Amino acid sequence: MKKRGIITILAVVAVLFSIAWVLKNNKKKNAETTAVVASGNSGAVAVNTEKVTKSEVNLDFSSNGTFIANQDLTLSAENSGRVTRILVDEGSRVSKGQVVARIDADLLNVDVETARANYQTAVRDLERYESSFKTGGVTQQQLDNARLNVRTSKARLSSASIKSGDANIKAPISGIVNKRFIEQGSFVNPGMQLFEIVDVSKLKLKVTANETQVVNLKVGDRVAIKSNVFPNSSFSGRVSFIAPKADNSLNFPVEVQVSNNAGNQLKAGMYGTAVFDFPKQNASLTIPRTAFVGSVNSNKIYVLEGNKAIERQVTAGRTFGSRVEILDGLKEGETVITSGQINLVDGTEVMAVK
User: Fold this and answer.
1) CATH of 42-55+283-352, one of 3.40.190.10, 3.40.30.10, 2.40.420.20, 3.40.50.300
2) How many C-beta atoms surround the C-beta of residue 315 within 10 A?
3) In CATH, which superfamily holds the domain spanning 61-69+199-276?
4) What distance lies between CA 29 and its chain's CA centroid?
5) What number is the average pLDDT over the span 51-59?
6) Model's pTM, two decimal places?
């Protein structure tokens, strides 16, 4: 038993010794590599390069999305009653304020007559109280209560009249009846769905733009719209909304308001493409994003001078996909190092790889 314990201890010691030896050896190799890179005496570092030139910048881009209705509203009942008449059906065009259905108004009319009778009684009572108050027959409080009763009765009459008028169910917007949820003779309660009305005279195309694209957009910009379903028809729109915050995919939602044609060819739910065209840009210096050490925000690159890598601070401008505009710190004709920077320090000898 004791012999087995000694063997286990020796095995553990051997493993620890091996780990220590490997770590020491790796540290020695890293130190040697760093020294070679820093001194440049043991051969040049292979790098990729690119000559800096001015090129035209193209800001145009397109984005696919889905059309949604300008207005999509579900009309609900405001009163209880039996549907006595339906004046529209699915597919019918309606105008704002048009009567689309009627419900039984008998009970509502009874409420109006009752409220009107109560109001008239309250008015007569107030006249008597005012007359009696002059002779001291009633108190000021009784007179005030009579006046309050008149105001309350009048409000109830107005409310009952409005409800009676709601027996004629009217379309709140202009559009097309997409769905009908009721049948003639059915009984409805407040809040029950009656019709779904959709306005497609104008639509919204919901698309997205990444961070390099959204900075060039502003509300009101004109946009060309294409639809694969109607390749021979042309549509146009204007940017109506640009989200101030990116979504989970780091893209920014953008809405384009589109005017439908006379035949309302475009339907809500169809796919469309927004084509964003921008004025021609002046040529500018651009370099690959990979030329930056770390990230674009570092503004640090390496320039090839002779056979050495020279560290350079630049001022980065706009980003165009895989390329970055340079505003200052670099001249046309110079050569930048686009890969291998991890092995470089200022003054390292390099060898450009074609």
Assistant:
1) 2.40.420.20
2) 11
3) Efflux pump adaptor protein, beta barrel domain (2.40.30.170)
4) 53
5) 82
6) 0.56
